[in-house]
Amino acid sequence: MAEHILKCWNNEFDAIVDGRKRFEWRKDDRPGRFEVGDVLVLQRFNPSAPEDDGTAKPSTLRAHVTYIVRGMFDVPRDYCVMSIDPESPTPSARDGGKL
């Protein structure tokens, strides 16, 4: 079991936190590849926020990989779709990182 730290765009992050999204589509380029049982440490990412304005503070959410699809259903060869089971979000993840 490995732990992968990944950036996650704001709208995707929010969809995971509120239960609308239970999968991750990623390039399968990690050493050892993504595997069932791995933990994804998803960090909220806002590409339009300047690094030093205080709004770019990353909120994090941990999610366990429960199933992986590779090379089927038109998933490109070097990508995978992972079913994820998120842990309960931290207060900072639920409120968008605002303290």
Put the structure in a nutshell:
The protein is built from two helices and five strands; from the N terminus they run βαββββα. With 99 residues, it is mostly beta strands.
Structure description:
With 99 residues, the chain is mostly beta strands. The protein contains 2 helices and 5 strands; from the N terminus they run βαββββα. It has one domain (3-88): Archaeosine Trna-guanine Transglycosylase, Chain: A, domain 4 (Roll). The chain has a 5-stranded mixed β-sheet.
Keywords summarizing the entry:
99 residues, mainly beta, Archaeosine Trna-guanine Transglycosylase, Chain: A, domain 4, 5-stranded mixed β-sheet, globular
Produce the secondary structure layout:
Layout: E1 3-9, H1 10-17, E2 23-27, E3 39-45, E4 60-69, E5 79-86, H2 91-94
Parallel strand pairs: 1-3
Antiparallel strand pairs: 2-5, 3-4, 4-5
Identify the CATH class: Mainly Beta
Oligomeric category: single chain
- How many helical elements? 2
Task: Give the structural class.
Answer: mainly beta
- Overall, the morphology is globular
CATH architectural group: Roll
Strand order of the largest sheet: 1-3-4-5-2
Mean pLDDT reading = 84
The whole-angstrom Rg is: 14 Å
The unreliable regions are none
The first-to-last residue Cα distance is 32 Å
Count of distinct structural domains: 1
Taking the sheet with the most strands, its summary is:
5 strands, mixed
